[in-house]
Design goal:
Elements: E1 6-7, H1 9-15, E2 21-25, H2 29-34, E3 42-43, H3 63-72, E4 80-84, H4 90-101, E5 107-110, H5 114-118, E6 147-148, H6 150-157, E7 162-165, H7 169-174, E8 181-182, H8 199-208, E9 217-220, H9 226-236, E10 242-245, H10 248-254
Parallel strand pairs: 1-5, 2-3, 2-4, 4-5, 6-10, 7-8, 7-9, 9-10
Helix pairs in contact: 4-9
Protein name: Thiosulfate/3-mercaptopyruvate sulfurtransferase
Organism: Natrinema hispanicum
Keywords: Pyruvate, Repeat, Transferase
C-alpha cells in the first residue's frame, strides 16, 4: 500500500523520534487520559472537528477552526500527521479526510487502531509538551476537492458512475441511491488483527462488487463518517476517480432525491 496514505505500526514505531512526525489520537479525552495513548500522541477528539460550521463542506469544522486545532497541537503545515482511534480507523479516517480538504499535504492513517498498536508496542499516559504553531490552512479549490454536493451527485447518476453505499444491510435495504452497490466499510478490516486485510484480498473484495480503479466512484453513507474510511483505503490502493458525497443520504433525502429500497444484490 501507499505509505503516503496508510502506514503500518512498524513504520510509525520507527518514526516516533522524528520531530516532523506528529501522532494524533482522535478518541475522547477520557480514553486518551484514562486508557493511555501512543507515545508522543496529542489528543484531538472527533467531536472537535466534526460539526456544521463550514456551510460549504457539510460537517467539516471550517478551515480556521481546524487550523486552530492543529496549531494548538503544535503541528505545522509541513509536518507528517498520523491519525488513529480505537474503532478500526473510521474516526481517524475522518480526520485524514478533513486534513486533506484543508490542504495538509502529508496526513496518514495508522493501519489498525490503538488496540492493534497495544499488542506489539508500548503506550503511555504521559501528555507531551507541545509548542503551539500558527498553522495556515489552504483549503482545496472545488475542482481539486474529492467532496461533491447534491447537484454533482444528481449529474453523476446520469453517467456511468458507480455509487458505493458503505452502510449495513438493513440501512441499505431501507433506502439507497438508485443503482448503488453495498460495500460495508468494515469488510476491509481483519477482525482478529484489527488491521486491514492484505492488499490482494482487498482488491478481490472490491472487484467482486464491481468497484475497480477504472470506474468513477461516488461514496456515500448517512452522514459521511463511514465513507471516510473507504475513501482512504481506495486512495491507498491507487484509485483516483473517487468522489466523496459529504451530504450523503441524509442530504439526498432532504432534497427528495430518488431512492430504491428492499433487498438487492449486495
Amino acid at each position: 500500500m501507499d505509505d503516503s496514505v496508510i502506514v503500518s505500526p512498524d513504520w510509525l514505531a520507527a518514526h516516533l523520534d522524528d520531530p516532523t512526525v506528529h501522532v494524533v489520537d482522535v478518541r475522547d479525552a477520557w480514553e486518551y487520559d484514562g486508557i493511555g495513548h501512543l507515545p508522543g500522541a496529542v489528543n484531538i477528539p472527533f467531536d472537535s472537528y466534526r460539526n456544521d460550521s463550514d456551510v460549504d463542506r457539510g460537517t467539516l469544522p471550517g478551515a480556521e477552526a481546524f487550523a486552530d486545532l492543529l496549531g494548538d497541537a503544535g503541528i505545522s503545515e509541513d509536518d507528517t500527521i498520523v491519525a488513529y482511534d480505537d474503532t478500526h480507523g473510521v474516526f481517524a479516517a475522518r480526520f485524514v479526510l478533513t486534513a486533506i480538504e484543508y490542504g495538509h499535504d502529508d496526513v496518514r492513517l495508522l493501519d489498525g487502531d490503538f488496540s492493534a498498536w497495544n499488542r506489539e508496542y508500548e503506550t503511555t499516559s504521559e501528555t507531551p509538551d507541545v509548542e503551539p504553531t500558527d498553522y495556515e490552512p489552504e483549503p482545496l479549490e472545488p475542482e481539486a476537492s474529492p467532496l461533491v454536493g447534491y447537484d454533482a451527485v444528481e449529474a453523476a447518476l446520469e453517467r456511468d458512475a458507480l455509487f458505493v453505499d458503505t452502510r449495513e444491510q438493513d440501512e441499505f435495504e431501507e433506502a439507497r441511491l438508485p443503482g448503488a452497490v453495498r460495500f460495508d466499510w468494515r469488510e476491509v478490516v481483519d477482525e482478529e488483527s484489527r488491521r486491514l486485510k492484505p492488499e490482494a484480498a482487498l482488491e478481490d473484495l472490491l472487484s467482486a462488487r464491481g468497484i475497480t480503479p477504472d470506474r468513477e466512484i461516488v461514496l456515500y453513507c448517512n452522514t459521511a463518517r463511514r465513507i471516510s474510511h473507504t475513501y482512504v483505503v481506495l486512495n491507498a490502493l491507487g484509485y483516483e476517480d473517487i468522489h466523496f458525497y459529504e451530504g450523503s443520504l441524509t442530504e439526498w433525502r432532504e432534497h427528495d432525491g430518488a431512492v430504491e429500497s428492499g433487498p438487492a444484490d449486495a
